[in-house]
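>> received
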Amino acid sequence: MRLALVADSEAYPRFVGERDAPRTAGETLALRSLNKMTKAENILEQAKSFRSEIGGDLHDKLTEAVYTDASAIAARAVSNENQTNNFHLDQTLDRILTSRLYGFPLMILMLTVVLWLTIAGANVPSAMLGEFLQGTVFNALHSLANALSAPWWLSGFLIDGVYLATAWVISVMLPPMAIFFPLFTLLEDLGYLPRVAFNLDRLFKRAGAHGKQSLSMMMGYGCNAAGVVSTRIIDSPRERLIAIITNNFSICNGRFPTMILVGTIFIGATAPPALASFIAASSVAAVAILGIVFTLLVSAFLSKTLLKGEASSFTLELPPYRPPQIWQTLYRSIIDRTLIVLKRAVWMAAPAGAVIWLISNIFIGGESVASHLIAFLNPFGLLIGLNGVILLAYVVAIPANEIVVPTILMLTLNLAKSTLAQNGVMSGLEDDVQIREILTGIGGWTLLTGINLMLFSLLHNPCSTTIWTIWKETKSLKWTAVSTLLPVILGILVCFTTATFVRLFGLI
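>> returned
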């Protein structure tokens, strides 16, 4: 039987009289051929329409466009002695930002300016948030608990423990992050951060590491877990392992608020008021640069001992400079970074506050569990220029670096049984001056303690999320342990060396 091909309402060819019957191989082949013919006809019609719009000299216009592009490229790349060179902003910026002479000083200056803007701009909103959350809301919650006749242990656990730790994290972390992340994102969008990686490439090659490690290191400044995952761009297993182990030396966004606060209340306080913010920002920038130094030194050590090998080469493509997109930058930095990090900090601060309240209110032999732990850790902590409170705080804060300072303050107040601390309560901390008075007056901190806390914040174990990510990426308990313990060992050695040097020469 001879069949006729027609198109139904859906423009799909079918065989008349055979609409529901199974198709043979020949029928299927015929359908495919028809579809190809239809597509070819459509493409041909589009080409004819395009050619009619351009006119009859299509070949001439294409040739002209090719030569125009070639001439523009040649004009930018070739110089003539008798011709004045045209000014190109992107090339001029690259010659300055990636030069051997100006590249690193500009990088340090840029980081210092960003940190200075963060420190100078966060003081007032932090004080306002602290007064509202730790004053107005805190007192209202206690009034509500009293009206409901809630037992002391329940109100203490929920309000004095869980809520107050969370409120402190929000009031201290939110303003700096809301300033720092948009500025950092702006540098990223402008195309400056790849230039920083380009400058660092030569140093990583000399250290026996892969040049792409500079990119994963830059990613670590946002989150060390993300920095570990980003090492997948490194093809060499040896060099990727070096990048994973050393990524913790990049100060993640969870550690920057601690750095900024300690730098402000200890380093900045030693300078005149007009220069306090700049000196504090310079101290944080110095610690960040020290992290790069440790990254290079440890990478060189690993490449010559446990992970021997030659550094492989790669090509780094610098993206073009882009004009700032303010609203997009604000959205990305606030939604994708600030709020996500703050959410993680709150999730970790709430259980940490509960743990601190419990160990502060469970007594053994007339002393709280916290007091026993601090007394046990204190001799070693003082030896390395810290104290037992700080060491216990870092144990409690393993889930997240963001809660280190709140934990330190709550433990300090509880241990001293001060007027601000009642059964592990932390209240009335509304500005940096009061925090400094508590740490120096009640906790016995000195400038050495503040400096070593900044150093130990740089050189200590990764957070639990990063440790888990390292294990997922390496599938090796050995290298996960090395990545976790190596920074702690370095942190202890550096703090001990600093404390010994300062005490021998009486510098502080």
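>> Strands lie at 5-7, 13-15, 363-364, 367-368.
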